[in-house]
Amino acid sequence: MKRYWSRLLALVLVVVIGLVGCSSPDGLSGNYRQDTLDILNILRNTLELSQDSPDKTSQQALARQKINDFAARYQRNSSVAGLSSFTTIRTALNSLAGHYSSYPNRPVPQKLKNRLKKEFDQVEAALKREA
Question: What does the DSSP assignment read for 26-43?
Answer without folding.
Answer: T---S-HHHHHHHHHHHH
